[in-house]
């Protein structure tokens, strides 16, 4: 297992300097949105940055003289992949909104029964408490070590997912 860098969701997007960083963060946002049982906080500023970078890369490719080069073809394929990721993130959010438009102004209060797979990305997550399914009045404390994966109630990890300390799988 490789150690993945932690991405702080609270960072100002102006601090993101390279297309690689923007893409890494967008990939994480896309995967979390796909796996989350509810609508996560919007990352449309990140989408706008990525769209601007895609446009710049397309302009660079269109200025190349030899359009048949393998390198140009590979760059176009990568741009199509990035465009799909961005579009699918927006489509996923729209599906969730269309499926439950009333939950957008008044969010569903809990997701205690929704289980998700989550991977710990950060060292300082600490311990997470979950309901003990054998005794519903008791709680279990789970130690969240970096790179560990857990099948866990979404409500227990939602704040960590939103902060970028955990990733939904």
Automatic annotation (TrEMBL):
GO biological process, one term: DNA-templated DNA replication
Cellular component terms per the entry's GO annotation: GINS complex
Domain DNA replication complex GINS protein SLD5 C-terminal residues, every copy: 113-169
InterPro entries named in the record: GINS_bundle-like_dom_sf, GINS_Sld5, SLD5_C, Sld5_GINS_A
Alphabetized Pfam families for the sequence: SLD5_C
Protein's UniProt name: DNA replication complex GINS protein SLD5 C-terminal domain-containing protein
Organism: Caenorhabditis remanei
Lineage: Eukaryota, Metazoa, Ecdysozoa, Nematoda, Chromadorea
